[in-house]
Amino acid sequence: MGQIIRINSTVISNETREVIPFASIQILNTFEGTSANSLGDFSIRVNENDSLKISCLGFVTQVIAADKIKDKIFLETDTKVLQNITIVAKRINAASIVKKAFKEINNNFISEPVTMSTFYRHYCKDDSVYGRLIEAAVDVYKEEGYGKPKSMYKKKDRYALVQSRRSFDKTFSKNNHVPIAFSTTLNADVAAYQNRKKNPWPFMMITASGKYMKSNLKNYEFELERITSIDNKEVYVISYKSKPWKKSGKLKSIGWNLIHSGKFFITANTYAFVKIESRLAGEAREVNDDIFYTAAKGKYYLSHIIHDSYFEAKVQDTVRIHNAHIELLVNDISIGEVPNFKHEKITEDVLAKNTYDPDFWKTYTVISENPLEQSIKKQLEGEYKLEEQFKTKSAEDLMALKKPKMDHELLKDILTESRDTIVYIDFWASWCKPCIGEFRKSEKIIDEYADKIRFLYVSIDKEIEKWKNTKQLYGLEKREHLRISIDSEIARKYELKFIPRYMMIYPDGTVLENVPRPSSGKFKSLVKPLLSDTN
Q1: Greater confidence, 325 or 416?
Q2: Which of 193, 195, 200, 229 could covalently link to 152 via disulfide, CB atoms 3.0 to 4.6 Å apart?
Q3: Residues 169, 123 contacting (CB under 8 angstroms)
Q4: Are 263 and 274 in contact (CB under 8 A)?
């Protein structure tokens, strides 16, 4: 038995002397490892008798004894890779390769029960100012392994929070943030999660998810771009782009003009996914995902997800840009059944009850911070050091959760008090399809009257995460929101079990219990005389 040592090194191209980002670092003959960051840096604790396998697309894989590794690791470009694929391309159908790769997931990926240890990092900013950091260790138990890809919500995958450390949230979207976007990020694992529905198109575009790709390959154009390599295997690089889609029926309410594009990296001999790039671009919104897979003991599994997104929101008549960066690293896996693995949805309560343990983070494998991330931490500190924020964040959240929910009291005041403006209330819920359909239909009309009428969205969702997720998904963060219980006095009084429901309150407190929805032509007819009366 040797000593445990920590290796800190940087992966660099021997030819160009440039850093190699996101290289896979594995302890040889194990599932344990990490990934290099955007600047090629990595840090990992290993036994001094171990060897590390370093691999990356387009480079020759190296295996180096741990005690021989220096502060720089140089990889050679794989010169055996075929550069001119004109002849190859004539006999290869790119779409058929992608279809074959989906079909071979059960053979190429781990199909036994497996527990994945993961590291999650999430930071976001408003315009150029960073305002939030979350890091977490989460265990994921896949009872069926990868098997045949299914919908995430039907697959028997479970996960549980091990540790977390969080800064205070200073972003303008803090009231709309989900507690942690772990499940959403994990859902980007295209090899694991595929919905079998035949016609969800183009809803996959709206949810920024590739989970519908297998059943919608006909809606994409594919092209074989080139051939690269990894681990001495040839890899097809196939680009894809969604075909234009027409809005009809229920889809007329969708205002985004979205294009989904990216690349598949698929081994030529076994048709295994080794990397997937996904780009979703639309009006005031963009989502980018890079999904990396690695192989150990002859089977592939998820190793690294990189998620970047931005959306525009109007805050107090100013357009603000919100950016989020999330990374999810699988740093170890163990194969075998865990009958008593307890699934724990990571809610606000669970995070609040999770006590920060600084000793845990001293030995846990994380993605090395780059200079930008180091500067983000300094920017987040302000008058409180991050260590203090990590220690107090959970305690403060736990105290806040114990306070009674006051939204129904606020709504009660709005319904009874006199005011200087008209209040228009949209009662809705995340599960109400007609409610969701109205959001995009009414967006322009609400913006037109926003300076004259106070628009208030009141949800009757039971689960706060679903409420927050839906607000973010449909770009509602810029609106004013409350959430009340379906069993509250107000919900019973106005029979809110039947939604969508639209109400209007006149400045003198008069309540119009049933009024036209904003997208209706009757809405303008109703409000014009009311506005003239209030001028």
Answers
A1: 325
A2: 193
A3: no
A4: no
Tokens of 245: 């889609």
In this structure, are residues 183 and 189 in contact, taking their beta carbons and an 8 Å threshold? no
Handedness of CA 68, 72, 74, 75 (dihedral sign): positive
Q: Is residue 402 over pLDDT 60?
A: no
Sheet holding 318-335, edge to edge: 157-166, 129-142, 114-126, 318-335, 299-315, 285-296, 273-282, 259-267, 233-242, 220-230
Q: Determine the Cα–Cα distance for residues 20 and 38; give it in Å rounded to an integer.
A: 8
Neighbours of 258 (CB within 10 A): 19
The structure tokens listed for 463 are 């689960």
Q: Please name each of the domains of the chain with its CATH number.
A: 4-75 (2.60.40.1120), 86-400 (no CATH), 407-534 (3.40.30.10)
Rounded distance, CA 27 to CA 172, Å? Answer: 42
Task: Round to whole Å and give the CA distance between 45 and 6.
Answer: 4
Is the CB of residue 421 less than 8 Å from the CB of residue 508? no
Q: Which pLDDT does position 426 carry in this prediction?
A: 94
pLDDT, tens only, 308-350: 988 876 655 677 788 999 999 999 999 999 988 988 888 888 8
Q: 250 in the Ramachandran plot: left (φ > 0), alpha (ψ -120 to 50) or beta?
A: alpha
Under the banding of pLDDT at 50, 70 and 90, the label for residue 126 is confident
Confidence of residue 532 (pLDDT cuts 50, 70, 90): low
| Kind and range of the H or E run holding 325 | strand 318-335
Q: Alpha helix (H) ranges present in 382-500?
A: 386-402, 407-416, 433-441, 443-449, 464-473, 489-493
Contact between residue 178 and residue 465 where contact means Cβ atoms under 8 Å apart? yes
List the one residue out of 131, 185, 124, 137 whose CA is nearest residue 165: 137
Note every long-range contact of 357-365, with CB atoms under 8 Å and residues 24 or more positions apart, other chains counting: 357/163, 358/387, 358/390, 360/137, 360/162, 360/163, 361/135, 361/163, 361/165, 363/45, 364/119, 364/137, 364/163, 364/331, 365/32, 365/33, 365/34, 365/44, 365/45, 365/119, 365/329, 365/331, 365/332
Please give the Cα distance from 74 to 62 (Å, whole number).
9
Residue 27 pairs with which residues in a beta bridge? 52
- The Cα–Cα gap between 531 and 522 comes to 15
DSSP assignment letter at 40: S
Rounded CA-CA distance 240/222 in Å is 5
Query: Residues 26-62: pLDDT tens digits?
Result: 999 999 999 999 999 999 999 999 999 999 999 999 9
Three-state SS letters, 359-387: HHHHHCCCCCCCHHHHHHHHHHHCCCCHH
- Angle between helices 371-381 and 386-402 in degrees, nearest 10: 60
